[in-house]
Structure formats: structure tokens, C-alpha cells
Design brief:
homodimer, alpha/beta, eight-stranded mixed β-sheet, eight-stranded parallel β-barrel, 32 strands, elongated
Chain lengths: 894, 894
């Protein structure tokens, strides 16, 4: 028979810490603490499975549950020596929700359950403290009424305040400028409050406050399960991308009272400092209070360090428990506890949240303390922990200002924060930045022509696009704060302003972006930029010793390359050459001249102008990557991305190049494509215009020869993009070798280079065995491969992909496939491509250069399918290194 | 050792008819005819391999060739009893090119080779006919000079004409209004001509006309091999898509003379009538002439029927040979022959070209004559033969007018011909057609909004797009003449005119389209429309008995459905429902109202208006397909294809629907997509707007129930487009069943329906095993599957795909993958999809509904991978039936 309820008490528990999914985090923690001998009040947990069945069965509980709860109440009565609803010796319990993942959106706690007009008197007698009993009762009525039954809490507060003001203040003659504290209210007044609370309850709900303690219990259980699908909770799960958990558990625990006098109290603590990671006991304690008082902030709690002086006995108990917990869990714990007349009770224990810095410090320290191994330390860290170390953030002290200045939210494309004046064109961004202004570039969407301005801006905000839109990808490459798909923005380029609902933001107005959350604020918030802790550096050494595959970077400039080296990149996996066409006006004009030329000679003439620029760029990159391979992708984007689409730009181009305006205009129109993603781009350009390939290969190899002469170890890997056929690749590869070998032969220098291909079109993966006849390496371009395999344009998916990822709506995909590689579909092609490729060429070098190369789950996949390296944006390099190490450990275990 | 030369003579031959690739068509024919005892002058063939080696080795002949030719000349001298270059008894030969496929672009023939100033006298003496010898000589000089050495033939003609006019006319006193015939010229005059020809030769080439007969021979051989790569020949191969043959052969054959008097002559014939297929001997004969005279049309030949009377002895020889040939080759032959003083010699024999009608008649008759089996008849026919039966064609008598009226050429998207007045908008087309005008719709490109006008037009001409562009696909569905990608057209919609180079064509001007060739003519040419021959019907019965898979059609209307049934369709494989949204203004407005609505209720309201229309359409289609399955695809195209993109249209929509214009405008802008092919379309629309699915399923099932009540056997198959995931499909399938089952349950009628999916995105093929858990059938949408698997937008591929198919440029693809399924890549996915699908659901029904379903090679592939049916445009149904039967025969043989 199904078991729906798990008991714990008196040192024994039916559950344990590994049963989080079934018992929730809280339930599993209580069970575990009980088992290891910590002082935990007895109680039981109703499983998450009940929650699941409850919703699957039209909000009915599974058969047998009621009986099981009853039996467990009996056990609890036995363990506590009290009786539920007994006027003489009443058992009081708390009812708390507890999902496998902590979830603030849900119902929290009901305390003191079991009190009614009779038991309250029993409690008074038993404790010899009528005030205490009545205080417990009024708290219970309020919590039950508001939390379980939905009565506005303020109405309770209002009644209580009124009594305090009209009766307590008068009675104690408290001056008007001083606050009346809860503890000032006496028993008589509380009796009045209780009465008025009950009246309110009846008025609001039309029934009396339940005298029946069982009704109280089930009302609370109903409320917990009901809160699982409350809008707040659903939204929270959606926002936090919490999936795959079936429901919440309910914990029914014997009450212990922190409000039984000055030798009682309640507190929360972390076993180490969650902000710095330091090995200090960190927390708050409130004398003579119940848990909710800490949260409500009614009185200011004291620090644990003070508790050591004020109540050394309690502090000693706490320290013992802290040590026991850390030894047991081998991680920093977040605990809740209550002291009842000098005796400590543990109410909760879970792995404590910490910031990035603390995560590294704690992991490092625990290795040094021999609590955990290096491998465990590595497995414990997350990509987000690394990210958090690098990006500037909004000063946490700005919390209040954030609320006031909040403007709108978009998609959090690149984390970090940025402040600047709004500009609406790339040109404006460049000019103002040149004048020393910090600017935020706001565009409907960005294109390669905007790259200069994007680089100049401190942050980027777009109205359209998803996490792999042009803006997001480019910004990520620089680690530049970026928010995209902020669909509520209405941008008016002519008026140089944007509106959000009714708010107008004009060019020059300051805004702040929080790329980690996607929030935009109107005005300037203070930012802070953290320094890298030593523990990070140490742990990353262990990471590099552990991982088995290389981590390269996607970088297009010497600057990015140097930066990536510092972040641990072992070469470049993707150097996009097209950005080199845009860096300056001069280059831009040369490529445009090439495009409007209508003869091979005309194109060669224009390309010759670009050659020295590209060569210089490559030299810088090779130097930065001395000793490491550099994979250079030949021209990829469709030509229409390089030409001006406005009349003014076209006229200027016509004038500069010396061709009629109409011809330029016609050429631009001719370049228009219905589906540019599937159009004339990639190696199709070099099939049509092989002279572009010639120029690019010349620039690469001449640069390589030059730096090699100066002692730089240079390993160029020339990469053909968008290959779909072995013959196609072979034609281009032959041409590459012809140009390259001629230069090398003339140079009297030895330069070894490889020629390989992107695998980014499904057909290339399907025919990888044939392509590998000629290709020396494969680099999976999983951005495009995802687009084509799934038939999903990343620029357009924003309109419907959310429906696919939204669990409430369809839940078709667990993740955005542009964020996390679709292992089931796209991954199958990747695997097939590698296997087929290596069936022809066993030593085929294989890597990934799509955005997925920096996403931990995807990196692990890349390791599992036997890639030689991953490549990602410089700022993701440490994340990829960590993920690669984790994969090595995890896959080593299997 | 390599053998480069193959001899034939005296009843024996080293080659045979199966060696076409090595000996060319002519060489193989001569060898075969020699072997079966036909009178063939002796000779030898230099193989195509020599041609291949010649080009591979920088225009040098392979070692040993010269010796082999010499040895064969010796054999030939022996066989003929004459000696090459011998002044007493000279051996004369002809030199002819002969590729494996007949190729008009190449050098044809040099006759009388071996004549020089000495041998001409020997020939004169030997034949006792000096005039004959000199006539042969002047012909030889002219042919060698022009054909082998490139001297303008007109210059020779001019000399000859001058002698005829100035000397022969005077001598014979021929009146000015009568022509001087070649035979009127006497020996003296010919001597003069020969002298002047030699002078011309020297003047043009700077060397004397060769006296050395060996030099003559090698000069001619050089010329034949040289002509293989001449521009004319290369272009011809490109246009005709001739690939995979390595070169031409050279045939050196002893001369026989048809010009030795009135008991000599020359002729060409077909063993049956190539126009009607009738079993009559069909050909032309010219007394006292050499082969070139027939071709040149200098004198009018007589019909073979006349020859029977005029020279019964020769005719009898011919008939015997004809009978022998047909029995031997079992097919109609195209022959060339010469009669030398009463004795017949065969000079060529090859399978005769015939028109579509004749192809069926001959195949049918030969089966009846027991010459061939039904299977052989089926294998012999081609898709083009069927097409040729159906489409109107330009009256062959208009040949001269065609030359005069030729305007420009585009891509031959849909064969047939059309005449009409040019219009530039769909609306104009509809209006003028309503007034009874025949119009040709000329557009830069077409979109679904143009469909009404396209339907109204007699033919369609677009400046952009390839064979699977919107215009081509839609037109093909109707079998409507269509030319696309006519890139030289410059259309000015404002001025209502188009220009081609400098010619201006205004709205209302008449043009003629030949969709079979892609030619456009300025003015109206006469068209004729053939009737279907009985032999076609009989053979198609055999075809249907033979094939093993079903052939369905792609049809969207009752009209198309009925038409397709007549053409043999066994159900509908693809009924696109979106065309139903466009049929009338009323429907168009309803779908647009749905699109601009911003609530579910608003959309449902608009959809309710469409419901009755769709239901009526389905009823008509179900009735037409009584007893056959009908696969209906739910809405597929992106919504922006349904909305007006011009301000006027948007204003009208705003007014009609009663929403502000700005809102309509915004909505249209919002619908814009960067890559619509990979955007919000297919089932993604019904994920976002499930109410559309509800309406469509309702329309389908209500229609099915209604017609079922009237005794129609109805088998709806509801198809979800663009599926990429099993869960996605399952969600929609469940919704389909819910709507459908409710209607059926209420109806008290039994309607069986299936729910399946298109497989048109690579991911769907990769995960077919999972999708098949829920899908009852798969239909491969190979148009989109090709686009995504190859990363090729069919709308944009026109700019670069030709480079991929062009053998001279790259030759990467053998065929346009939108025409002929890419079996290597896309086909691999199809195969994988079927295997994976059937691994889950062994009885999974599988078909194809892309354009490939009507292309013979692709149909054969579909048979080989085990599909249950193919589906194609109505007009392609018979072609698919034939291909399916051929596949059954061919694959049965294996």
C-alpha cells in the first residue's frame, strides 16, 4: 500500500535527506536532523505525491490519507505526551509547506494549531501563563484566518493596533512618540483581541472560527496544497525555470515556543557567512519570540555573536549543532531554531544559499579542512557562481531605489549591470562614447552595422530578439550587459525617444540595466565591481587539472584574444572574420565596393584594400594566442548585411566608389532575401566569389608567416562555414591549400595549418563521413544547426518559443534550445556527425563553437560525445572549464 | 594494352550496340548493324575514352593511338580494296563525331576525305566521271575548311554562287527568275570553284589546303575532339542537363556516294512515324545527292512512299532493313542511308526520337505485335511523354514566327503554352478575366494574396524564384503554364510596364509563354491542344496493374479533386486548407479579422465565420474523393501571408472589422519575420491559437459526418504540419481527437479518421520513433525538409544554386534538389524517419506530399524506402503512376 506520511521523532525518522523530492526540502531536513540526533520536535510529513494526486484527482486526497494522518497524530501525541484537542494537556502543532525546492511563492507557516476556546485555557493552566496562551491563540487565529483562509492580514493587524492604542497605551501611559510593543499587551487585552479576531473571521467567512482541531488541521493542509497552484507560486516557478517537481509536502510538527519568556527565543542562521564565505557563525536571534516575529521585523534581532555573551548556554548548544551539521552535510547550512525555556530545538536545515564569492571560499576552505575532496568542491560550484564573480552589479544598498526607479523588464541576455545615457543609433553611441559619455544603446534590433556603436556603449537594450539574437550574441562575446526582447519598448527613432506604457524616455536620459535579471531602471543606480578572490584562482587550477577537453574561445580581435587567454582559453575556436570588415569606415567602404563591383577584377581590387587590415588583425590574434590554435572562419553572413540600406548611405557609397547611385540601390535590392538564414551566405559566397576566399586565406597565411618569423608559435585552422556537401568542401579546401601553400613555400618558413569545416547544416552532419574525407576538423555550429534542425529562426522564435518552454501552457521543451543544447534532437545529429566523421578519419578533431559551448549542461554533452574542445565567449571560458571538469568527474564515475 | 579503336566491316565488328558510352551512339550503331548483316561501309571508331584522355592530358592523344589508327586504316584499305591517298584507286572516308547522346552542338561530318589534287584525278578516272570527282572535291574542301578549320561557310557559298551566276547561268542561259542548281554546274566550272576554294583556304589560314591525306585525317579528328568543349556543345549539355558522359567518339568510314547519278541517292528515315507512332515507313530520299544536301535543304526530297514507285528495288532493300532493325532493336529506329548506284548502304541507326503521342502508340503497338512485353513498354516511357500529352503547345507551324517574336527566356516551371494580355496585378487579372479576356499575370514574385489572380490568368510569368517558388508550385498544382526566374524582366508596377533590355511591354500587350522551354514571345502565337490517345489509356491500365504503391494528389478544391480523380489519383495526400481562406473577399476578411483580434473570443468569433466555408469546401472534396482517403493539413503559412501589407488594404480591413487603423498596422508590423520559413507557422500557430485547430477540425469532421450520412465513403486524415516534437504533436493530436470525437459521437454516424503529421523539419525525422507513438501516419513534406536539411531557402536559392548544379562551374549537385529529391542527404533523413517511425508503429502509413512526389526519380526512391503512397499535383499523377510502375519492375528485378 502507498505510504503518504513519514514520521520523525525521538531520534528516529522514516525519511532522510535524500528524499527531498518526496518529502520536500524541509521534511527531508527534519527527518535527517532527527536521525543524526539533533533536537527536533516530533512531527510528520505528508508527501509531495499527495499534492500531485490531489491535483490529478480533481482536488481530492488519495484514499487512506486521512487514516494515515490520524495514525501519525496518534504517534505524535505519544511522542509529545500531549493530546491534540485535549483541554487539559493540549498538543499544539505547526503546519508548514515544503517543496523540494525552496519556493517563496507558497504558503509558509501556521503556528499554534490546536488551540480553541477550551485548549487555550488548558495551555494557560499548564504553562501557568495565561498571557502566553492567549498570545498564541491570537497568533493562530490570525495566521489561520489570513494564510489558510485568505482574510486580509491588515484587518487583523488593524484590530490588534487599535487595542494596543486604545487600551495598552492608556493603561501603561506610553507617550505618543513611543511604540507600543506586542509584549506590552496584557492577557485581558489579548482576550479582547481574540474575541475581535473571531468576530472578524465570522464576518469575513460567514462561519465561526473552528473549535474542532481536526478541522483546523485539514483546513491548513488544504491551504498548503492549494497554495501550490496559486498564481504567485506558478509565476515563481516560471520565472525561476523550476520544473520537474510534482508538488509540495506538508509538515506537521509539534510546537515549541520561543515566546515563553526571556529564556526562550527564536533564530535563523547560516553555518558560515553566506556573503563572504568566512568560517564564522552567522545569524540573528530574537528573545521571547516566535518565528514569524523575526520575519515580520517587529523587533530588531541580535547577532549571534551577541548571543554568545547574552545566553552562553544557548549559544553553546547552537555551536555544537552547527559543527555537527557541517560535518554531516559537508556544506554550509541555513538553519531555523527555537529555544523554549533554555532548550534548543531545530526547525529547519537546508543547504544555504550563498553568493559567488562565498561559494568559492566555502568550497576551497572545506577542501582545506578535509571536509570534502577537490572533486566534491568542483561539483558543488555552478556556472552562475563564476559569472557572479565577474560582472559589475547594482550595489545591493540600492534596493529601495530599484523599486522606485523600475521601468520595464526584458530578457536577461548578458548578466552584469550598466548605467548610461540613452542613445538610439550606433553612430550616436560612438560619438558620445568618444566624448567620454557612458551610453546605453537602445535599438529595436541590432545588425552588424551597429557593432561599432554596440562596442562603444556600456550596455545594450533591444526591443526584439531572444538570447541568441545578434545583440545578445555580440554582447555576450564582450561580456557586455545586454537586455533583449523588451517588447514593451516603443522606440521612435525620429523623435529620439522611447515610451514604456506612458513613460517617455528621451535621448540623453540616464537608465540602468541589470542584465542578470532583465530589469531596466529609469535613472542611475550605483554599480560595484567585485575583485576575483584567491580561492577562485586555486579552485580553477584544480578544475584545469581535472578536465579532459580543451576550452577555447570565440574571439575576433587581439583585445578579445588577450582577454580570453587571461580567462584560461586554450586557443580560439571561432574567429569571425566579418567583424573585421566593419571596424572602420575605410574597411566598410572596401567591402561595400567589393559587393557593388560587377567584375572579378573589380572585386579583387576592392578586396586588395581589405587584405592588409585583415592581415594585421590576424597578426595580433596569433600573437595573443602564441602556442595555441586559432580557428578562423571564412566570410559567413549574407552580403546584404554589409551594405547600407538607407538612401543616404547608398548615395555616399555610390559617390565614394564612383558608381551610379541607381546601381548601388539596385544591387542592395537584389541582395534582399526572403530567408537570409537559408540564403546566399557561408561558403556559398566563396563558391560564387572565390576571390574573397583567396584574399582571406592570403591574409591569414601571410600573417602567420610573419609572426612565425618572429618566433610566435602559430597554428591556424581555416574553417569553411555552412558546408553541405563533400564536393563543395573539397573544391574550397583545394583552393585554400593552393593559396596557402604557395605563400608558405615562398616564405621559407614552416607554418602548419589545418582546413576544416563548420557542421551547422543538418545535411553536413548526415554526410559527415564523406566530408571528413577532406576536412581535418569539424566545429559544430550549434546555433545554426539548432535553427535548421528544429526549423526555428532565432530572430523570430521570441513570438512562440516561450509557449513551448512555458510549462503551464505546453511544457514541450525543458529549455530554450538556443540556451541549452537540444540533446534529444540536435544532439543526435551532433553525435551522428562525430561518429560518421571519425568513421572516415579516426583522428578527426572535433569542437563546438556555438553559444552552447559555454553552457554547462551542453558542455557536459560535448564531453560525453567525445569532442576535443569547446569554444565560447571569453567571459564564459571559466564556466566552460568548470563544466568540463564536472563532466570529467561525473562521467568518470559511471 | 589499352584499345582505342574499334573496327567494323564485312559483317564483323569489334563493337556492339551496348557500347554506346565507349563508341558513341553512331559508332555502336554502325558496329551493331555490321554484326547483324546489314550493308554498312567498313570503318572504325575512335573511342570516347580518347576524347577524355585528350582533355585530361592537355590536348595530347594517348600513346599508341596514332599507330592504332594507322593499323585500322590498313584494315579499311583491305576491306575496301582501295588505298588511302592512292592516286590510282583512292580510298575516301567520312569523319563524323558521335557522342553517347546525340548532341547537335558538336561537329557533324566531313565527307570525301582523302581527296587532293592527285587523288581527285584518280577518282575521276576510276568513276569515269570527272564532274563527280570535282564535285566531291569542292565539297570536301568546303567541309574541311569550314567545319574542321573554322572558315566562315558563307565565304565558300559566296564563291560557288558567283561561279554559278556568272558562268553556269550564262552557259545554260537559265532565266533570271529560275535558280541555278548545283547539278547544273559542269566540271570546268567546278575546277574553277576548287581553285578558288583553295585560294580562300590559303588566304584565311595562311597555309595551303593539305595535300597530305593523313594530315587531312588528323585535322578532322582534331576538329571532332575539339568540338566537344566548344561553347555551343557545352551550352547544349548544360541546357539539356546532360551529365556523366566523358566525350565524343570519332567515326572514320569508307565513303559511299549518293551523288553518282540517278541510280544513287541518300535519305533519312524513321521505321515508324515519329509524330503519330503509326506503323508506316517514314522518311525522305534525295536522288543523286550526298547526305549534307538533305540537311541543307538545297533540293526538296521525296517521301519514301514515292520512292516505292520511283525506285522499287531500293525501296525493297530499305523495307527489308527496316524490318530487320525493328526485330533486332525492338524499337523504332532513326536511320541514315546512302544508295550508290543501286546498292543501299546504312550510315546510321539509333533509337528514334518521337513525340509523346507516338511514344504511347509505338509502345502499345509493339506489345500487341509481341515485339516487347508490357513491362518493357512501361519502362520505355518517360514522364515527359505523359506531360506532352496534356499541355497545350505552340503550333509547330509557328516556328518562323517564334524566331521573330522571341523576347526573353526564364525557367520552365510548368510546361504547356499560354497566350494573353499582360497584366501586372492579381486584381487586374481577376477583373480582366471576368470580362472574358485571356491574361498573363506578370509579377516580380507571387504570394498567397495573388492566388485569385493567378487562377484567373492563362499563364504566369515572374522575374524571380525557382521551380519551387510560390508561383511555380501553385501553377503546377493547376497545370497552368508558368515561367519563373526570368531575371532580365524589369517590372515597373507604377508605369504598368516591363522592359527587357530596351523593349518595353505595356499592360494589355499580348505575349505568348512556352512553359516547356521557358521562352517568352512578344505577340500571340497559335496554340493547339492535343487529345488523349487510346494507347495512353491502355498502357496506364497496365501501369496501374504493375505498381505497388498508391498515387494520391495534392488538391485544395472540389474542382482539383475531381480533375485528379480523372487523372487516376487514389485519394488526396495534401489538402492545403489555407487557400480556402483566400478564395473570396469575405473569407479573406474573416481570417484577417481573426488575426487582428486580440482575445480568444474575438478570434473564435472571426473563425466562426470561416467555419461554414471550410465545411462546404471539405464536403465537395470528400464527395469527389468518395471511397478514397483525404489528408487535410491544418493551417500552415505564417499569418503575415494573410494580411494586407499596403496602407489601403490595412485601412479597409480596419474599417470593415471596426478596429483602429493603427492597430491593424501595428499588428501587421508585429507579424513581420526575419526568416518566415523558420518562423511562427505550421502547428506553432495552433499551439499559440488552438482555436484555429478547433475550427478546422470541426469543419472537417462536420463535413465528413454530413457526406457520410448521404452514403459517401469518407476517410479524413488530419495532418499536423511542421511538427518537431512528440509532446507537441501529442498535445495537438489530443485536442484534434477531443473536437472530432465529440462531433462524431453526437452525429450517430460512424466516421473513421486518422491523425498524423508532416515530417518536414529534420528534428521530426530524427525523433520519428517518438512521434510515431501518437501519429497514425507520416507524410514527408520534402520541400521544406529539403530547405531545412540543406539550409537552402527555395525563394533565395536562385542566386547561387545554379552555380552548384552547373557542371562547368562546380558540379556539386547533379540536380536541383527542389526538382529531384536529394537522396544522399535529405533521402537519408527520409529513410531514417520511416525506419524509426515503423520501429515504434510497424503499420505506420507513410507518404510524401512534397513536389518530389511527382518526379520520377524521386518516386522510385519513395518506392524503394517503402512508402505507402506518393502524392503530387493533379497533372503529375499519371507521371507518378508510371514512375511507380517502373520502380516496381526495376526493383522487382533486383
Amino acid at each position: 500500500m502507498a505510504k503518504y506520511v513519514y514520521f520523525f521523532g525521538n531520534g528516529k525518522a522514516e525519511g532522510n535527506k535524500d528524499m527531498k523530492n518526496l518529502l520536500g526540502g524541509k521534511g527531508a531536513g527534519l527527518a535527517e536532523m532527527t536521525s543524526i540526533g539533533l533536537p527536533v520536535p516530533a512531527g510528520f510529513t505528508i508527501t509531495t505525491e499527495v499534492c500531485d494526486l490531489y491535483y490529478k484527482n480533481n482536488k481530492k486526497y488519495p484514499e487512506g490519507l486521512e487514516k494515515e494522518v490520524e495514525e501519525n497524530m496518534k504517534k505524535l501525541e505519544k511522542a509529545s505526551g500531549k493530546k491534540f484537542g485535549d483541554p487539559e494537556n493540549p498538543l499544539l502543532v505547526s503546519v508548514r509547506s515544503g517543496a523540494p525546492i525552496s519556493m517563496p511563492g507558497m504558503m509558509e507557516t501556521i503556528l499554534n494549531l490546536g488551540l480553541n476556546s477550551k485548549t487555550v485555557e488548558g495551555l494557560a493552566k499548564k504553562t501557568n501563563n495565561r498571557r502566553f496562551a492567549l498570545d498564541a491563540y491570537r497568533r493562530f487565529i490570525m495566521m489561520y484566518g489570513s494564510t489558510a483562509k485568505g482574510i486580509d492580514r491588515e484587518k487583523f493587524d488593524h484590530i490588534f493596533e487599535k487595542v494596543k492604542e486604545e487600551q495598552t497605551r492608556k493603561r501603561l501611559q506610553i507617550p505618543e512618540d513611543k511604540k507600543v510593543n506586542d509584549i506590552d499587551v496584557n492577557a485581558e487585552e489579548l482576550e479582547e483581541v481574540v474575541k475581535k479576531f473571531k468576530d472578524l473571521y465570522k464576518k469575513e467567512l460567514g462561519v465561526d472560527f473552528p473549535e474542532d482541531v481536526k478541522e483546523q488541521l485539514w483546513g491548513s493542509i488544504d491551504a498548503v496544497f492549494g497554495s501550490w497552484m496559486a498564481e504567485k507560486a506558478v509565476t515563481y516557478r516560471k520565472v525561476e525555470n523550476i520544473k520537474g517537481i510534482i508538488g509540495t509536502a506538508v509538515n506537521v510538527v509539534q510546537m515549541v515556543f520561543g515566546n515563553m519568556g526571556e529564556n526562550s527565543g527564536t533564530g535563523v542562521a547560516f553555518t558560515r557567512d553566506p556573503n563572504t564565505g568566512e568560517d564564522v557563525f552567522y545569524g540573528d536571534y530574537l528573545f521571547n519570540a516566535q518565528g514569524e516575529d523575526v520575519v515580520a521585523g517587529i523587533r530588531t534581532p541580535i547577532k549571534l555573536s551577541e548571543l554568545e555573551k547574552k545566553d552562553p548556554s544557548v549559544y553553546k548548544q547552537l555551536v555544537e549543532i552547527r559543527n555537527k551539521l557541517e560535518k554531516h552535510y559537508k556544506d554550509m547550512q541555513d538553519i531555523e531554531f527555537t529555544v523554549e525555556e533554555g532548550k534548543l530545538y531545530m526547525l529547519q536545515c537546508r543547504t544555504g544559499k550563498r553568493n559567488a564569492r562565498a561559494a568559492f571560499k566555502i568550497a576551497y576552505d572545506m577542501v582545506k579542512e578535509k571536509l570534502i575532496t577537490k572533486e566534491e568542491a568542483i561539483l558543488r560550484l555552478k556556472g552562475k557562481d563564476i559569472e557572479g564573480l565577474f560582472y559589475p552589479i547594482i550595489d545591493p544598498k540600492e534596493a529601495d531605489n530599484k523599486k522606485k526607479m523600475y521601468l520595464v523588464s526584458g530578457i536577461d541576455a548578458v548578466p552584469g549591470a550598466a548605467v548610461g545615457k540613452v542613445v538610439f543609433t550606433a553612430k550616436e553611441a560612438e560619438q558620445q562614447a568618444a566624448n567620454g559619455e557612458k551610453v546605453i544603446l537602445v535599438r529595436r534590433e541590432t545588425s552588424p552595422e551597429d557593432v561599432g556603436g554596440m562596442h562603444a556603449a556600456s550596455g545594450i537594450l533591444t526591443a526584439t530578439g531572444g538570447k541568441t539574437s545578434h545583440a545578445a550574441v555580440v554582447a555576450r562575446g564582450w561580456g557586455k550587459c545586454c537586455i533583449v526582447g523588451c517588447e514593451k519598448l516603443v522606440i521612435d527613432y525620429d523623435k529620439k525617444q522611447m515610451t514604456v506604457n506612458d513613460k517617455v524616455v528621451k535621448q540623453g536620459d540616464e537608465i540602468t540595466l541589470d542584465g542578470s535579471t532583465g530589469e531596466v531602471f529609469l535613472g542611475a543606480l550605483k554599480l560595484i565591481k567585485p575583485e576575483l578572490p584567491d580561492e577562485y584562482k586555486e579552485i580553477m587550477k584544480w578544475v584545469d587539472e581535472t578536465r579532459k577537453i580543451k576550452v577555447r574561445t570565440n574571439a575576433d580581435t587581439p583585445y578579445d584574444s588577450e582577454n580570453a587567454r587571461k580567462l584560461g582559453a586554450e586557443g580560439i575556436g571561432l574567429c569571425r572574420t566579418e567583424h573585421m570588415f566593419f571596424d572602420t569606415e575605410e574597411r566598410r567602404l572596401a567591402i561595400q565596393e567589393m559587393i557593388v563591383a560587377d567584375t572579378v577584377d573589380g572585386r579583387i581590387k576592392a578586396l586588395d584594400k581589405l587584405l592588409p587590415f585583415q592581415r594585421e588583425d590576424f597578426k595580433g590574434i596569433f600573437k595573443a594566442m602564441d602556442g595555441y590554435p586559432v580557428t578562423i572562419r571564412l566570410i559567413d553572413p549574407p552580403l546584404h548585411e554589409f551594405v547600407p540600406h538607407d538612401e543616404k548611405g547608398q548615395r555616399k557609397l555610390a559617390e565614394t566608389v564612383g558608381v551610379p547611385f541607381e546601381k548601388v540601390k539596385d544591387r542592395v535590392e537584389q541582395l534582399h532575401e526572403a530567408n537570409p538564414m537559408l540564403g546566399h551566405r557561408g561558403c556559398r559566397l566563396t563558391i560564387t566569389y572565390p576571390e574573397i576566399l583567396d584574399m582571406q586565406v592570403r591574409a591569414i597565411i601571410e600573417a602567420a608567416v610573419e609572426v612565425a618569423k618572429n618566433g610566435v608559435k602559430v597554428y591556424p585552422e581555416i574553417m569553411i562555414p555552412l558546408t553541405i556537401d563533400a564536393k563543395e568542401f573539397h573544391l574550397l579546401e583545394t583552393r585554400v591549400r593552393k593559396v596557402a601553400d604557395e605563400i608558405i613555400a615562398k616564405s621559407n618558413t614552416k607554418v602548419e595549418y589545418l582546413v576544416g569545416t563548420m557542421i551547422e547544416v543538418p545535411r553536413a552532419a548526415l554526410l559527415a563521413n564523406k566530408i571528413a574525407q577532406y576536412a581535418e576538423f569539424f566545429s559544430f555550429g550549434t546555433n545554426d544547426l539548432t535553427q535548421m534542425t528544429m526549423g526555428l529562426s532565432r530572430d523570430d522564435a521570441g513570438k512562440f518559443l516561450p509557449d513551448y518552454v512555458d510549462e503551464k501552457k505546453t511544457g514541450i521543451f525543458k529549455n530554450d534550445p538556443f540556451q541549452v543544447l537540444d540533446q534529444e534532437g540536435v544532439g543526435l545529429l551532433v553525435k551522428m556527425g562525430i561518429e560518421k566523421g571519425r568513421s572516415t578519419r579516426p583522428n578527426l578533431k572535433v569542437g563546438i563553437c556555438g553559444e552552447h559551448g559555454g553552457e554547462p549542461e551542453s558542455v557536459k554533452f560535448c564531453v560525453s560525445v567525445g569532442m576535443n574542445y569547446v569554444s565560447c565567449s571569453p567571459f564564459r571560458v571559466p564556466i566552460a572549464r568548470l563544466a568540463a571538469a564536472q563532466a570529467a568527474i561525473e562521467q568518470g564515475k559511471k
